[in-house]
Amino acid sequence: MKFTKSIREEDVKRDWILIDAKDKVFGRIITEIATILRGKHKPYYTPHVDCGDYVVVINADKVKFSTSKKLEDKYYKHTGYFGNLKEETVEKLLNNNPEKLFKLATRGMLPKTKLGRKMLKKLKVYAGENHPHTAQVKGN
Fold first, then answer.
1. pLDDT tens-digit readout, 26-46
2. Taking the mean position of all CA atoms in its chain, how far away is CA 79?
3. Could you tell me the pTM of the whole model?
4. Are 64 and 26 contacting, i.e. CB atoms less than 8 angstroms apart?
5. What is the 3-state secondary structure (H, E, C) of 64-113?
6. How far apart are the first and last CA of the chain?
7. The domain over range 14-64+97-125 is classified in CATH as 3.90.1180.10
């Protein structure tokens, strides 16, 4: 009888992957990022182990949206006080803080546990071309 062997946290080899978001569709990039952060692209994927890679996204402010989602989609937060439900449109987030927009969208595709929060810490988003991770990213 054969058994499937689960990988341990110590045995995971992590890479740094650079994604250029310029003129790419937002939802498709987020899906790709979430897959890489979870480690589902690796042959030894194990759901209860963080086996994903680091992701560096550049040109986050130059991403494209299909249809009119830029104006229609909203992100909500609540301050804790009565009647203080705050909403921000995607367009406003993209103009003011594209890093936050990418983190919020990716967080929605990751597990809502300690493991998901740990995975999200491996996402690095930058609005421009420059980033401080040139030493880690292969091919740069």
1. 999 999 999 999 999 999 899
2. 24
3. 0.90
4. yes
5. ECCCCHHHHCEEEEECCCCCCEEEEEHHHHHHHCHHHHHHHHHHCCCCCC
6. 46
7. yes
